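FAQ

Q: What does a record look like?
A: Structure on top, sequence underneath. For example:
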């Protein structure tokens, strides 16, 4: 395949960025978006030009590092797939593909396609963990968890923190990400002991740093792990639950 790539190039956070066009020959239709960038960088290196900076790690759809915008959409053309699993063969030969960073005022560009998504860490640090002292590790089956509850918790806990939901939301909301963090821990017996504190702390960060959720649903459509849209409601539900039920710490 022959493709024409329009790639956002930006030397640093304070530099002005712009799109640059590259013609790339010999692309295999089975290449992922990241492999296409590898192919481009080999060409740039051979020509003595600076390679395009982009993030990746596992390339198996489980790490969340590869977030970028493809043709104006977070991750790429298909719903529920990370960039590392979007195949260029889905585009016609000779097509133009535009690549740019995840776009959000909360994600400053560090270089080319690499952004700082550290604002998501503020949510995790506020309460996306369990700190209950349980003593020695209990047996795996010591505290029974129903199948339905376990499946719901796994669906929410599947979030890989790629940040595409924030970039896809017109309001820059992190409600899907925050709801997933709050929800899967609230469903589990031991983490639920901190349910109220966690909800209040995470909701505070969401209010202070992100935009409001208006129910557009773009976040759920681009989520590579299909975290359900219902997760956005968990932020408010858990916050009000903590206020109304004193039994929740």
């Amino acid at each position: 395949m022959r493709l024409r790539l329009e790639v956002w190039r930006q030397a640093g956070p304070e530099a002005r960025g712009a799109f640059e066009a590259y013609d790339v020959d010999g692309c295999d239709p089975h290449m992922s978006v990241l492999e296409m960038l590898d192919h481009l960088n080999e060409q740039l290196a051979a020509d003595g030009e600076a390679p395009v900076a982009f993030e990746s790690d596992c390339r198996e759809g489980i790490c969340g590092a590869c977030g970028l915008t493809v043709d104006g959409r977070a991750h790429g053309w298909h719903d529920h797939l990370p960039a590392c699993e979007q195949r260029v063969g889905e585009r016609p030969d000779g097509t133009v593909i535009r690549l740019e960073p995840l776009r959000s005022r909360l994600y400053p560009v560090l270089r080319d396609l690499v952004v700082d998504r550290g604002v998501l860490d503020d949510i995790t640090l506020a309460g996306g963990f369990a700190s209950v002292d349980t003593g020695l590790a209990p047996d795996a089956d010591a505290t029974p968890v129903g199948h339905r509850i376990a499946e719901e918790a796994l669906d929410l806990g599947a979030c890989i923190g790629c940040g595409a939901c924030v970039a896809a939301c017109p309001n820059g909301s992190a409600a899907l990400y925050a709801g997933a963090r709050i929800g899967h821990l609230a469903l589990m017996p031991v983490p639920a002991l901190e349910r109220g504190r966690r909800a209040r702390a995470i909701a505070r960060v969401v209010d202070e740093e992100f935009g409001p959720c208006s129910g557009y649903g773009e976040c759920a459509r681009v989520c590579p792990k299909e975290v359900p849209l219902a997760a956005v409601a968990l932020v408010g539900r858990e916050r009000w639950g903590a206020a109304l039920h004193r039994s929740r710490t």
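Q: Is there anything notable about this one?
A: The mean pLDDT is 93.
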